[in-house]
Write a structure and sequence with these properties.
The complex is a heteropentamer.
Chain A (H helix, E strand, L loop, with lengths): L33 H11 L18 H27 L7 H16 L5 H23 L4 H21 L11 E2 L15 H24 L1 H11 L1 H6 L4 H27 L1 E2 L6 H14 L6 H20 L2 H4 L3 H7 L2 H15 L7 H12 L6
Antiparallel strand pairs in A: 1-2
Helix pairs in contact in A: 2-6, 2-9, 2-10, 2-11, 3-4, 3-9, 4-9, 6-7, 6-9, 7-9, 10-11, 11-14
Chain B lengths: L1 E10 L2 E11 L4 E5 L6 H9 L6 E6 L2 E2 L5 H6 L2 E3 L12 H13 L13 H14 L14 H14 L4 E5 L10 H13 L4 E5 L3 H7 L2 E6 L2 E6 L1 H6 L1 H8 L4
Parallel strand pairs in B: 3-8, 3-9, 6-7, 7-8
Antiparallel strand pairs in B: 1-2, 1-4, 4-5, 9-10
Chain D lengths: L20 E7 L6 H18 L5 E2 L2 E9 L4 H13 L4 E4 L3 H14 L2 E4 L14 E3 L4 H9 L9 E7 L2 H15 L4 E7 L7 H10 L3 E5 L5 H10 L2 H4 L1 E5 L17 E4 L9 H9 L9 H18 L3 H8 L3 E3 L4 E4 L6 E2 L2 E9 L2 E10 L14
Parallel strand pairs in D: 1-3, 1-4, 4-5, 5-6, 7-8, 7-9, 9-10, 10-11
Antiparallel strand pairs in D: 2-3, 11-15, 12-13, 13-14, 15-16
Helix pairs in contact in D: 1-9, 1-10, 2-3, 4-5, 6-7, 10-11
Classes of the chains: A mainly alpha, B alpha/beta, C mainly alpha, D alpha/beta, E alpha/beta.
Bound molecules: adenosine-5'-triphosphate (2 copies) and magnesium ion (2 copies).
One adenosine-5'-triphosphate sits at the interface of chains B and E.
Chain lengths: 374, 247, 296, 379, 256
């Protein structure tokens, strides 16, 4: 029986899930602790007044820096969650923004319009987002490949239209809906408390990475990796592909909704930008930039993308750029131009994403070393 | 234990599989031969549920499985290999087999347990790999295996699922002559115990003759004959339509 | 009655625009297997090329032959950009489909920003013959000429594409090349040339859509391409990837649906209906209206 | 060397009487509203020059501007605002987009800094909170100006044609309140903002035969919309009123341009005030446009706030509330109750042909005539 | 002996770090069938692909490959093929989405009139199934298509990778006959596991083991010497073991 090529999305550049292959080598004793070290460093960053000129506007502990970092961390987590679909299960969803937006708008509306306390709003939102993902996933997963991508895109598009239409004045339409902070815990309000939002974002990122890591390393994760390669075979082995894909889809949707809750707090409101298919596309960009199917790649990609997205506006209006001739300064003052170009270069030169840089550098180092030992 | 009753699959007007009546007893080894395009692979696809039959019934232990999706049939003990190797290319060889073992053992969703920690699964997987002689390739990515090695991996995946009825689609295709005896003995050992039944498509007549208790001959989708090897080989139609002149 | 005719004809005009955008997309998507997000860029280049030529190119203008010349220039510019994109960005990434798509995503971001950096974010009035601003009375309906022009252009493009696919070997080469590029080379065919050609044609179709879209909208702005793109995607998918005829059917369905629902139903429902149509079509027939039945 | 500090440190602003006053300007330098942003900042700099007599100082204290691009994205604007506030900035101005203004306003209130919103036209900024002011006009003022086109509205039929969403909702509501409240029957035709084909809507309007058509449409599809209205004969049978956008957009009206009655926030030549002369002299190109007055007024308000309030934001607020000043458009008053900025509005006509239009003022409304109803301060 | 048609010298192939071929040298005679033998995974396919220039991008090829006086390395595949190098790949690689007729049409080369009569005479099935999509052909039918494709044109050398894999005994005989006939006019470099086919067709043999050439010489000599076959290929030659149908058994895979 010959496989006929159907118009399907090819699986993303395959990477063996790191969780499924025990690590070896010199580093294998230290490596498990590296994430912990990174986490500790991230937790104490707000205590540092280290100025990083050119990288951030102010010292590390300034609210502006912490705010940017918090946004970056949330998107790092979001990208890691999206990778559960894209990199690890091979499902190309173009509608992931919907669940994130559901998280943001859900929290905002429940707090601002319904006046619920934050914890209730957050709980309801995450539950609701997860259920939404389960329901829509149950329908969308009847299709595969490009068709799946398009059905998810269609659902997300309906979400975007509903938000823009502003039914009943719930969403504020194109103007967005500022979050009413009067009922919020005092520790989350005000510029001086930005650090709490930062820690919240860090906690979210840690949660997502941990969940994705555990799930990928679990028996279910193994099935997901199998689904990425050959769905028919999974069926013949006695596993229901649909069920596993739905679990991955729902879980990723729930994680995105949780990210939405945090993001809503950080930004202090909701705006329709986040419902657009461009957000899903940028998630895809983040994952690929970092390295799909790898543990840290998507996180790095998400953080880097959001950092650039925020910082390039400042770069574009900086004196260094302004002083260039118009042919250069005009495009360079367009953040999207720089971001798009960087992205193309990244796809070109780091096909496995940032995560592949490490191994490559090692390879380079080895090939540069004279072959002394045998 | 496996039986098909008037199994038919049509595409348009053409019957690819044409009213096939088959019975497979426990412990039996049934070889399926037939010219290229006779519908052997299609028959397998119908039995395993990758295709829906247009007419007819399939029963396993008396239970009608004709309406079940592939994974439900697999859970009832139906396993198969593919004519064109279909392994999980981006997973290592060992991980491929572990996945198969796990599919066979744990039914429910396990999101939080560490897969690598399951020693039983690992041990069962290694046994299966050993049996087909791929143990030394355990860490290689399945996608980079040479053709013959992929065939062996296919069989290892099948073994891992411990099915009661096994459908082998040309397991020997592309396996180097040297490795054939080894694989034959692996396949032979499948039926030796415990009343497992095997349905095997194979063009290598000597392999079929060595292994099969009975041979079914397919031609143009229909079952031409189903009898002992001796009778089948003596059948003039079979000689003419399938075997042709000896080299 | 007049209303129905008006809605039908303007709906067809809209459908024609969608088809013009979708045809190139469908060709590249179906044949070269690249989900081309940079299609909006080609569209923009076509529109701005025409706009620029009408103002600056000697002999070109906003009327008569001068306008034709301007459109030709715009289409040539779009084609050139498409060819360059294929040669420089897509070709080295062949067999890495996902990466190709990602490169076009990057291009769509950077390209639109570049247009904006060069000509500003604001809409510019588009040069066009005066008759395109007028209406023709058809059975009591005042039908805009711009829409009629689109319909004629769409029919011509459809015919030309079908002829290309039917009468040349390229259609075959490309379909085979998508499946197994190596094997096409192993038959002695330079598959790279065929792929470049597909991009060129896709780019030309997009640029033409950009130029005629400019006529239809009366303006050109950097984001125009991307906003049309989403409906073009929907059309391509409903029609079945790679099927030019399917895209034509789908474009007509989408255009008419949108037009009628927007008139008779509450506002915004038109878009929701189109999206709903997409979902329903895909769930019932994942390969699209005219897509081939894929076998496992 | 790594230094340590508290995570809740923020720089404390000035205090020193000679220290510069930090003013943050968060507006669109890139993105869809970049050209609005450009006018805003040009106006702001001209206004600062005017209000400080060319010194750029209030008393001894220099006004130190920090410009940040928000690209029209509220999330970026919020980050920028937090960054500025964290560095001790007490005055933030800008916000080209309504979404940005609405999300920065609560930040200002939470941190007790002064926020002067810019071109963002949404009514919701008015009365948002004690710390939020506006330097531009709001939708309601547009609608009041539109009403002045039909004389006595009683018994007249008015149709609002607007895009879906908050902008359209606000306009529809305002027309119902202002013109409908005065006795006209108001109905609406709404279209999705993404629509590209307007003929059905145009023919819908045509059949309704209104005495006045109020069009509230923003975005790049506007020219196609006007063309459809013109082609279906709406423009020649009804009085059609809409807001006059920036000068660069005028050519896109095409043939429709001379048939529309415009309400205008501002255009070059609409007023002949001290401030407008000063602004004209100062801005690059010497031609004023729609949003120059907003920037100019913002600078005037900043200078006033610093003059009267020093570093004390509450004092700044008190100083601004109820303040009247002569802006580019004429006499402007900050209404104390809800911080609405009462200002003159204009009726305009475009004359000329093809793509070269000139605008002439037909009539102007004083700030009181176009005043929106006072709303309660929300926060 | 006359000049060989193909000269492979010191061919070395690495693919993503694996040294698959390590200095392989052999020649292909200008007439008849030269067979390339070896266990699964020794690099037979890799050798053929290196000759037609289809080593994957991650791979690295060293050494020299010459056809006549002409060096083949570094020339694009489509040029090589147009220059008369026909290739029948291991996995058939028919274009599943195209019909049989389209598959054949694709193989036509510009300026040469395609020998459809010859192909249809050999494989009448292909004529009958012209409108069927190649992906729905059975394995054997696909193999016929893959071979038919290269026979449409005149070639100076054919590279054929395991043409009888998965074919019914009858078809194996047929394919072997076809190749035998083809080899009368064109030299063939054949990879084959079926020793019966090898015995029937091969004149010269090259045996690969562990990435190197283990033996070259006359194929008959190789197959006759039981000790040699056993040591190189791991099989006893010739003797069939099946009692039921001694004559028939030889039609399938040769003994074990
Ligand atoms: N989806 C399909 N559409 C049309 N024809 C099909 C389809 N699938 C199979 N066929 C046809 O059905 C027949 C049987 O195919 P099948 O693959 O079952 O043969 P087979 O007996 O396994 O042959 P082989 O030994 O060569 O593998 C063939 O003629 C094939 O062309
Ligand atoms: N793309 C690749 N990446 C990594 N390893 C590869 C790749 N292609 C082939 N190999 C390895 O090269 C070796 C030789 O492969 P090749 O396909 O040439 O063997 P073969 O002799 O044709 O075997 P068979 O008889 O099974 O067809 C195998 O071990 C295979 O795993
Ligand atoms: Mg078969
Ligand atoms: Mg091989």
């Amino acid at each position: 029986m010959t496989e006929v090529k159907s118009p399907e999305v090819p699986a993303p550049p395959a990477a063996v899930p790191a969780e499924l292959t025990p690590e070896r080598g010199r580093w294998h004793r230290v490596r498990p602790f590296l994430p912990l070290v990174a986490l500790v460093v991230a937790v104490i960053v707000p205590y540092s007044t280290l100025p990083l000129p050119g990288i951030f506007e102010g010292p590390l502990n300034s609210p502006g820096t912490l705010q940017v970092l918090a946004v970056c961390l949330v998107f790092g987590g979001l990208a890691a969650g999206y990778d559960l679909l894209f990199g690890r299960t091979g499902m190309l969803s173009f509608g992931h923004a919907l669940y994130f937006a559901a998280g943001v708008y859900g929290t905002d509306i429940l707090v601002t319009k319904a006046g619920l306390p934050l914890w209730q709003a957050a709980l309801l939102t995450v539950t609701g987002g997860t259920i939404l993902a389960a329901l829509l996933g149950a329908v969308a997963l009847r299709t595969v490949g490009i068709a799946f991508a398009m059905v998810t895109l269609a659902f997300a598009q309906v979400g975007a239209i509903l938000v823009a239409r502003d039914f009943g004045g719930f969403t504020g339409g194109e103007e967005g809906l500022p979050l009413d902070v009067s009922g919020l815990p005092a520790g989350l309000v005000g510029v001086t408390n930005t650090v709490n939002l930062y820690w919240l974002a860090l906690a979210y990122l840690t949660l997502v990475v941990f969940v994705v890591h555990r799930v990928s390393g679990s028996p279910t994760g193994r099935v997901l990796a199998g689904l990425r390669d050959d769905e028919r075979r999974i069926g013949v082995l006695g596993l229901d592909p649909y069920r596993y894909k739905l679990v991955a889809f729902t879980l990723a949707g729930g994680l995105a909704a949780a990210g939405g809750v945090i993001y809503c707090l950080i930004v202090g409101g909701a705006s329709p930008h986040i419902t657009s298919s461009e957000l899903t596309l940028s998630l895809l960009v983040m994952v690929v930039l970092g390295g799909p199917g790898t543990r840290w790649g998507p996180v790095l990609g998400g953080v880097l993308y959001m950092y650039l997205d925020h910082r390039l506006t400042a770069f574009g209006s900086s004196d260094a750029v302004e002083s260039l001739p118009a042919v250069l300064s005009r495009p360079l003052s367009q953040p999207l131009f720089v971001l798009g170009t960087l992205f193309i270069l990244a796809v070109y030169f780091f096909p496995g994403g940032l995560a592949s840089l490490g191994p490559r550098l090692t390879l380079l180092r080895h090939s540069l070393q004279p072959p002394t030992r045998r | 234990m496996l039986a098909t009753r008037g199994l038919t699959w049509r595409i348009g007007e053409v019957a690819i599989v044409d009213s096939v009546y088959l019975d497979l007893a426990p412990g039996e080894f049934l070889g399926v031969i037939g010219p290229n395009g006779a519908g052997k692979t299609s028959l397998f696809n119908l039995i395993t549920g990758l295709r829906r039959a247009t007419e007819g019934r399939i029963t396993l232990d008396g239970q009608d499985i004709g309406a079940l999706p592939p994974h439900r049939r697999a859970r009832l003990g139906l396993g198969r290999t593919f004519q064109a190797s279909s392994v999980f290319g981006s997973l290592s060889v060992r991980e491929n087999v572990r996945l198969a073992v796990q599919a066979h053992r744990g039914g429910s969703m396990k999101l939080w347990r560490r897969a690598a920690a399951d020693r039983e699964v690992a041990a069962a997987a290694d046994t299966a790999l050993d049996r087909v002689g791929l143990a030394h390739r355990g860490t290689a990515l399945a996608g980079t295996l040479a053709h013959g090695e992929k065939r062996k991996l296919e069989i290892a995946l099948l073994l891992a699922g411990e099915p009661r009825v096994m459908l082998l689609d040309e397991p020997m295709a592309g396996v180097s002559a040297e490795d054939v005896p080894e694989l034959v003995s692996v396949i032979k050992s499948l039926t030796g115990d415990s009343g497992r039944a095997v349905l095997m498509v194979e063009h290598h007549m000597d392999v079929i003759l060595e292994l099969a208790d009975r041979i079914a001959v397919m031609h143009h989708g229909a079952l031409l004959a189903c009898d002992t090897p001796e009778t089948v080989m003596a059948n003039p139609t079979v000689q003419e339509a399938y075997l042709g002149e000896s080299l | 009655m007049g209303t129905v005719i008006l809605l039908t004809l303007t709906g067809l005009g809209l459908a024609a625009l969608y088809f013009l955008v979708a045809s190139g997309l469908s060709l590249v998507f179906g044949l070269a297997d690249v989900l081309n997000f940079a299609h909006g860029l080609f569209l923009g280049v076509g529109a701005y090329g025409t706009w620029w030529a009408a103002g600056n190119l000697p002999g070109a203008g906003s009327d008569g032959f001068g306008f034709v010349l301007a459109v030709v220039f715009g289409v040539a510019a779009g084609t050139l950009v498409a060819v360059l994109v294929e040669l420089v960005l897509i070709r080295p990434l062949y067999s890495r489909t996902i990466e190709q798509v990602l490169v076009t995503v990057g291009l769509s971001l950077a390209g639109v920003a570049l247009l904006q950096a060069t000509w500003g974010a604001d809409a510019r009035p588009f040069p066009r013959p005066d008759w395109t601003r007028e209406v023709t009375g058809i059975l009591g309906a005042q039908v805009p000429n711009g829409g009629l022009l689109l319909i004629i252009a769409a029919v011509l493009v459809l015919g030309a594409l079908l002829a290309f696919l039917r009468w040349t070997r390229y259609g075959l080469v490309i379909r085979a090349g998508v499946e197994n590029r190596e094997m096409v080379t192993a038959l002695g065919i330079d598959v790279r040339k065929a792929f470049t050609l597909v991009f060129a044609i896709g780019g030309a179709a997009a640029a033409l859509a950009g130029a005629l879209g400019g006529v239809y909208f009366g303006t050109v702005s950097p984001g125009q391409g991307s906003s049309l793109l989403i409906f073009a995607f929907i059309v391509v998918v409903i029609g079945g990837m790679g099927s030019v005829v399917g895209s034509a059917y789908a474009a007509v369905a989408v255009g008419l649906l949108q037009q009628f629902v927007n008139y008779y139903g509450p506002s915004g429902l038109g878009d929701v209906c189109v999206v709903g149509l997409l979902a329903v079509v895909l769930l019932l027939r994942p390969q699209g209206i005219a897509g081939k039945v894929a076998t496992a | 060397a790594t230094a340590c500090g508290s995570p809740q440190d923020t720089a404390t602003g000035g205090g020193d009487s000679a220290a510069p006053v930090k003013v943050g300007l968060v507006y669109s330098q890139s993105g869809a509203l970049a050209s609005y942003g450009k006018q805003y900042i040009e106006g702001f700099k001209a206004g600062l020059d005017f209000a400080t007599q060319g010194t750029g100082k209030v008393g001894d204290r220099k006004i130190e501007l920090t410009e940040v691009d928000d690209a029209g994205d509220p999330a970026k604007a919020v980050s920028a605002a937090k960054d500025l506030i964290g560095k001790g900035t007490k005055i933030i101005a800008g916000s080209t987009a309504s979404g940005v203004a609405l999300q920065v306003a609560p930040i200002a209130a939470q941190n007790k800094v002064l926020f002067i919103s810019g071109p963002a036209a949404t009514d919701a900024v008015t009365g948002a909170n004690k710390y939020t002011f506006r330097s531009g006009r709001q939708s309601y003022q547009d609608v009041v100006t539109a009403k002045s086109f039909i004389g006595d509205p009683a018994g007249k039929k008015v149709v609002v044609f607007a895009q879906d969403g908050a902008f359209g909702d606000a306009n529809e509501a305002a027309v119902k309140a202002v013109i409908g409240g005065a006795g006209a029957t108001v109905s609406s035709v709404r279209a999705p903002a993404s629509a590209t084909e307007f003929t059905p809507f145009a023919s819908q309007i045509k059949t309704a035969k209104p005495d006045l058509l109020f069009v509230a449409w923003a975005g790049t599809t506007a020219p196609a919309m006007w063309q459809s209205l013109d082609q279906q004969g709406v423009l020649s049978t009804t009085t059609v009123v809409t807001g006059l956008d920036i000068r660069a957009s005028w050519p896109t009206f095409g043939a429709a341009g001379t048939k529309i009655s415009f309400l205008s926030h501002y255009f070059d030549g609409a007023s002949d005030t001290e401030a407008s002369k000063a602004a004209k002299a100062k801005i690059p190109g010497g031609t004023l446009d729609l949003f120059h007055p907003d920037g100019f007024a913002a600078a005037q308000m900043v200078v006033r706030a610093v003059q009267e309030g020093g570093d004390d934001v509450d004092k700044m607020v008190t100083a601004l509330e109820g303040w009247s000043f002569d802006g580019v458009k004429g006499k402007m008053t900050i209404r104390a109750a809800d911080h609405a900025l009462l200002q003159p509005m204009f009726q305009a006509k475009l004359t000329g042909s093809g793509t070269a239009f000139t605008a002439t003022a037909q009539k102007s409304l004083t700030g009181d005539e176009s005043a929106p109803p006072a709303v309660a301060m929300k926060g | 002996m006359t000049e060989p048609i193909l000269n492979v010298e010191d061919l070395s192939v690495r693919i993503s770090g694996l040294h698959i071929l390590q200095g392989v040298s052999f020649t292909v005679a200008p007439t008849g069938v030269t067979v390339l033998l070896g266990r699964n995974g020794v690099g037979k396919t890799t050798t053929l692909r290196a000759i037609v220039g289809l080593t994957p991008p991650a791979g690295e090829v060293r050494g020299t490959i010459r056809m006549g006086a002409q060096s083949l390395l570094a020339r694009p595949t489509h040029r090589l093929v147009r220059g008369g190098l026909g290739y029948v790949p291991e996995d058939r690689c028919v274009f599943a989405g195209l019909t049989v007729a389209e598959n054949l049409r694709l193989a036509e080369r510009r300026g040469v009139s395609p020998a459809y009569d010859k192909v249809f005479a050999l494989f009448p099935e292909l004529d009958r199934r012209g409108r069927q999509r190649a992906g729905s052909l059975s394995g054997g039918q696909q193999q016929m298509l893959a071979i038919g494709r290269v026979l449409l044109n005149d070639n100076r050398l054919l590279l054929v990778d395991e043409p009888t894999k998965g074919l019914a005994p009858k078809v194996v005989t047929e394919v072997a006959e076809v190749l035998e006939r083809v080899a009368e006019s064109v030299p063939v470099l054949l990879v084959e596991q079926n020793l019966a086919v090898v015995r029937r067709l091969a004149r010269d043999a090259v045996v690969l083991a562990a990435g190197k050439v283990a033996w070259t010489g006359d194929a008959r000599e190789l197959l006759l010497e039981t000790a040699l076959t056993r040591s190189l290929l791991g099989v006893g030659s010739g003797e069939s073991q099946h009692p039921a149908q001694p004559g028939r058994a030889a039609a399938g895979k040769d003994g074990h």
